[in-house]
Write a structure and sequence with these properties.
Length: 274
C-alpha cells in the first residue's frame, strides 16, 4: 500500500507540472500533422504519375492504402519516441532541478519514482495517439478499421518494452549523468529497423533479423493489419504475444540494470555529480 501511495504521489506531482506548463500542447497538435507528410509525399513520388508503383507496394505490403500504412507506423513511432524520451530523461530533469538527491534520500524504493513518472508519460503517449487519429481522420481523410479495444490491446503490449528501455536510459542518467545519446541512438534504430514508413520485407535479411530484436516491430505490424487491412485481433495474436514476450524481456533487463546502477551509485556516492 505504501508503494502505491508513493507511485501515485510522484504521478500527481508530474501531472501537476504537465498541466501547469502547457508548452507541450502546440507540439501535440502540430507534430502528428507534420511528421508523416515527408513520407507520404515520398510515397506519392515513388508511385509514379500513373500510380503504377502501387501494384508493387500492394504485393509487398498487402494494401494500396499507403497513407494509412505510413500514418499508423508514424503514430506508433511518435508514441514510442515520446514515452522513451520523457521516461528516459525523467531523472535527468530532477537532477537539473536539484531535487534528485532529496528524492533519493526518501525511505522509498527508488524504482517507484520511475513508475510514478511513467504514469504521466503513458497518459501523454495515449493523448498523442488520440490526437493523431482525430487529425488523420478529419484532415487527411483516413479511415481506420477495427475497434477501440483492439487498438488499445496492441498499444498496451508495447508498454513494458517502452518502460524497459526507459529504465535503461534512467540508469545511464545515474551512471553517466546523461542519456540523450542513447535515446537518440535507439529512436534512430527504431525508425530504421521497425518499418515506420515501409514494409520490413524490403530490407536485407540481416536488417530484418535485427528488427526482430525490438518489440515495436511486432506491434507496428499488428497495428497495421488491424487498423489498415481490417483483420481481426485473432489473426494477429502471434504478433501480439511475441511483442509482449520481447517487451517483458526488456522490462526485466531494464529492472536489473537499474538495480545494479543504483547499487553502484550508492557505493561511489556519485549521485550529486553532474
Amino acid at each position: 500500500m505504501n508503494r502505491i501511495r508513493t507511485i501515485l504521489a510522484v504521478g500527481r506531482k508530474e501531472f501537476t507540472e504537465v498541466t501547469r506548463y502547457k508548452d507541450w500542447i502546440p507540439g501535440l497538435i502540430i507534430w502528428p500533422l507534420m511528421f508523416p507528410i515527408i513520407y507520404i509525399l515520398s510515397a506519392v513520388g515513388l508511385a509514379g504519375p500513373d500510380k503504377g508503383g502501387l501494384n508493387t507496394f500492394k504485393e509487398i505490403a498487402g494494401t494500396t492504402n499507403y497513407t494509412a500504412f505510413i500514418a499508423v507506423g508514424v503514430m506508433v513511432y511518435m508514441w514510442v519516441n515520446t514515452m522513451m524520451w520523457t521516461f528516459g530523461t525523467f531523472l535527468r530533469q530532477e537532477q537539473r532541478r536539484g531535487t534528485l538527491e532529496s528524492l533519493w534520500l526518501c525511505p522509498i524504493r527508488k524504482i517507484d519514482i520511475l513508475i510514478g513518472g511513467a504514469l504521466v508519460n503513458i497518459f501523454i503517449g495515449f493523448t498523442y495517439i488520440f490526437v493523431s487519429m482525430v487529425e488523420y481522420s478529419f484532415i487527411y481523410r483516413m479511415s481506420f478499421s477495427g475497434n477501440l479495444l483492439e487498438w488499445l490491446a496492441i498499444f498496451l503490449v508495447m508498454i513494458p518494452g517502452v518502460i524497459g528501455f526507459g529504465m535503461i536510459f534512467a540508469s545511464l542518467v545515474l551512471w553517466l549523468k546523461d542519456s540523450n545519446i542513447a535515446v537518440q541512438l535507439v529512436r534512430g534504430l527504431v525508425m530504421i529497423l521497425c518499418g515506420i514508413s515501409f514494409p520490413i520485407s524490403v530490407m536485407p535479411e540481416w536488417m530484418q533479423a535485427l528488427s526482430k530484436v525490438f518489440p515495436f516491430t511486432y506491434g507496428i505490424e499488428a497495428a497495421r493489419r488491424v487498423m489498415v487491412e481490417g483483420e481481426g485481433i485473432n489473426s494477429v495474436l502471434s504478433q501480439i504475444i511475441t511483442c509482449l514476450i520481447v517487451s517483458l524481456i526488456y522490462l526485466i533487463i531494464g529492472r536489473l540494470v537499474f538495480v545494479l546502477v543504483e547499487r553502484k551509485v550508492k557505493m561511489e556516492g556519485s549521485l550529486e555529480r553532474f
